[in-house]
Amino acid sequence: MVKTCLSIILVLTNLLAAQPAYAQRELRIRTLLETPLPFVTTCAAPIAGSITVNDVAKVVAIGQRLGVAGAMGNPEQLTFYKLTDQGQLAPGDPVRVKLPKPAKLDPHPNYILAMTSHPTLPLVYVWQDVPPLPDPQVIDPALAVEFDHLLVFDVSVWPPTLAFACCRGSEHHVGDRRGGMAIDKAARRLFVPNMQMIGKPMNMTKTVPALGWLKLANDGLPYFVESDKAVATAESTQPPMPPGPPLDPAGAAAARAPRIAQYEAAKATPKPLLPARYAEWTTYSFTVWPGPDSYCPVSDDSILLGSDSGAATWNLNDRLGRFGYFFITPQAPYRYRLAAHPTLPAAYATCITYDGRIHRFEVAEGYFTLAPQVLSLDNVVCHSPVAVLPANNQIAVGAAGKICVVSLTPEGKLTTQGVQMTVNNPTVEALAWSEKFGRLYVPVEK
Amino acid sequence: MRFALAALVTIALADVAHARTIVLTEADCELMACIQADAPRMSWAGTANTTAEYGVNAIDLYPGKSAFLIKYPLEKIPPGQKITRAEWLIPYQIVSPPGGARLQIRRILKTWGPGVSHLNRMTRPQKVPWSVPGARGVGQDRAAEATAVVSIKNSGEQSVNVTQDVELWYAGAAQNNGWMITLEDQDSWIRIGSPMWSNPKGYKLRITFEPE
Question: Is A369 within 8 Å of B114 when comparing Cβ atoms?
């Protein structure tokens, strides 16, 4: 009798059920099963804020961020791991490198904001900064005039060596704690954060934040221009000269040597050389430093951006809709990070250190289109941008003490199939995927 | 005990046998767009925050050159039902002139999808333009006759009777390509709620149905 009643009640409940709690575009995973993930490789590097893998040289690089209250874990901010031919960590200790800075900035601990790797050359690009002391005062530009933000490491040798340093002086804002960096697939553009230029907002001429990139030559370094030609060069999206044919690592190294010598020699002259760049300022979307938080170049004409309150598009060939700003609620300033799928027309946004939502944007011809999909992970707060794992048809995101992996549909849409793996890192802020090795690299404390 | 059980079953089955109402919001909708002639390639040109910079923080409708497009999926209505009433609530924030302006709601006749903009109804899997940019082809892109023309002023929420349209789509008599909201009165401007910012889940479609 009781069983009959319960059965009837169950049937009636199902019949009377209204719509599900979560709507069509909104998905939810209540529980992520703890699962060992065989494609994950953990790399010990404390207070890690960034990570990149160079498939060409089989090297993983991990960058140390600024710690709480300016504390630093190690004086060496950059850690390199060599990989085997299968993408596992090679036997032996990692190489730890202390980043250079001028003596005048000794009281200011330098840290890494972002990193990326050249797709075909054994080069790792590191963007560093120093905090103002005492916080939140700005840094005296006179102190920072010899501070090189961009460090280019040659990882074809072991230990890796600093091949080149640049991006100093008035073209770059100093004292920022965030910023995104990326390199396009053709390796012609190195997008760097916290650029600045002379703009004319409100009919005033002043230094304003800028978006843009360094124009890379085929040897992996920026083209150089004389300082008096830098402004004009920055107004064009085109490189200062026709790009040459792709170079192999040896050819690129040979090409770099005389150019580096030329650059260094010009430092002491009245006309030092500057990296050729393109810079553009906006009047609404990106008007403060630091920024942008993410660069995702998806074509020669379109770049997706992580912005103050969501995601944005930047279309270079559209003078009418040049920037599209997709606000995401709630307004959690400076927390949104964006990652583009490398092969599908989709991008994914997380709101780091705020909640466990992942937004999936449809992209068409460089614009966000239709309505985004939202996946909520219960009991998860995202700490990293999404890493896309195309070979696995998955995405991964870092959280407190774990990484979460969610399966995608063939169109790159989010599903409710997800797992998690505990790692020894209280805040996983960065992940790096190697398409060559099919492995996900995760920094851990030890 | 038996009487209570019988009463429970009777009440429950009676409820199932009579009308039910579901409420869909734009959170159920994958197809949505704000198209503007001033930014003809963008899917989300809600408001011009400054020159050539558009955002979804608001949706501004100007006569003859902008529209809000949305398609509600009707799969949540079980088969074998009769639509007795469908009401669409549209939130709005600002109306100019203060005396009021008129919103027009029309069925969209053509399929649209990824890459929808003022110029194109989709760019993927292939680029297909509207018959007239802005989905303004009467009888081609959009229904010749408006579903509703409503006068609004100040701010609030406007209810629109869309029963006939939902019936049409549910019965399969016409393809469900959703609606477009436009402004046709000259010298007017309306800011409707942004589903992505100011009015999440504010575009409610209440559908009441009962077994046939």
Answer: yes
